[in-house]
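Two entries, shown back to back:
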Amino acid sequence: MPIRVLLVDDEPMFLEALTALLDRDERVQIVGAADTSLRAIELADAQHPDVALVDLAMPGMNGFELTKKLLANEPALRVLAVSGLSNEGAVSLALEAGASAFLLKGGLYDEVGDAIVAAAAPHHH
């Protein structure tokens, strides 16, 4: 069973690159890509993903608030917080909001498949 993944980012280029990358990873199945927080909530409700990659710098409802909302609706969901910037504050806020891990966009392409699998590990025996 592939891990069902929801991608959330307001940059179309990033979503495209990530989708192309993960499409080649047979461990992962992308069930939705959202470019707004509201769309992310709709897709999570409809698709029940195992893991959501959430950009922290979403416009409107930011990634911290979105993470809390997604987890309130889907307690079994694992959220991977994604950011272009590394700062201690963002990391601890993301983890406080309920994110399982924090990924930097810069190094993401090498490790994202493994990070998703690691996050979903409790679900996949």
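entry 2 starts here
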Amino acid sequence: MPVPFPPAGATNLDPPDEAEVAVVSRGVVSATAPADGPTEVQRVLVEALFPAMTGHPASVGGPPVGADELARALAPRNEAYRTRIVQTMVLAALVLRPIPPEVADRVAAFARELSVDEGMLEVAQRFASGSLGLAAVDFERNGYTATWTAADARALHTSTELASAWEGVVHDPELAARWDALEELPAGTLGRRITEFYRARGFAYPGRPGSAPPLLAQHDWVHVLADFGTTVESELEVFAFIARANDDLRAFSLLAMVVSLFETGYLRAGAGLFESDPGHLARGGMATRVADAMRRGARCTGSVDFLRTDWFALADLPVGDARSHFGVIPKSDAALEAGSVGPWEPGGISPFQERAGRELAASAGRPYGSFGASSAPTA
């Protein structure tokens, strides 16, 4: 029997204590573990997420928790809190390849008991049934871009209206000129750093051939703002940060998308440019890095939709001031020890990007500058 949400005056808005975290983490494992128990990726993910987000350890090996028991335990919690728990279940299910149908059904049962309607659960069920094409459609129908409007596109500064959120724009001289102008900003400003970020990697500015869709280019500013490199591993961190900074619960679909691209390969393509490259979340330390990115996103000031932000209005701020503006906190020691790097560090750029940067510099007749980044850590 679904447990209703509490009235406003009876809602528990306090951070969860250790006992609640133990019950909830056991509930997540109970909902998502295959018949022979949680996989190693599921285990390390749960063990990383709960301490990062709550300060309390997860209980992975404790007694199972049923849907009704978890729903009763969370009876004083509101819709947003319960939805975050269901999203954690979906995330733990999405790292399975394949997703057993009984796991997808079990997560759906937990969501019903919690009175939660989570759009990405439908995506997980599509994956479990092998309907990968329909799952891709569900990302658009139930995810972040479902509410995208022409008014939102104003932050992208395109000269013409986009037919879809992730549409590419490769012939827009006015848009390209706006990006070109960032090169004239003082050193150390957010806008000047983004141009250095592009030059080091050989990226084309939006509005020019070979460029990323303007909406996807929005996340490039977050690489600089939140100090993430541009390997596939770093992309997982960036989208975890972006998804959790936004109180709009649909933003979770952005993290679900990159996990489906870069861990399981359920999606062949996404965001108008990304292509499937599985196996990255399972790498050592990545669960810690993603969990810390979510922690940092959650700690941003208020609710921030970084993909709908007008970055040009902030481009002349020093990077430190831009971080203060959004309340961006430093990475944890654990994330740094796990290998999280920034865009200007060894390991903060891919070999392909470094080659593209060198080729761009050669075509422009100037020396190549990586601004500190290299494609492999130095000894």
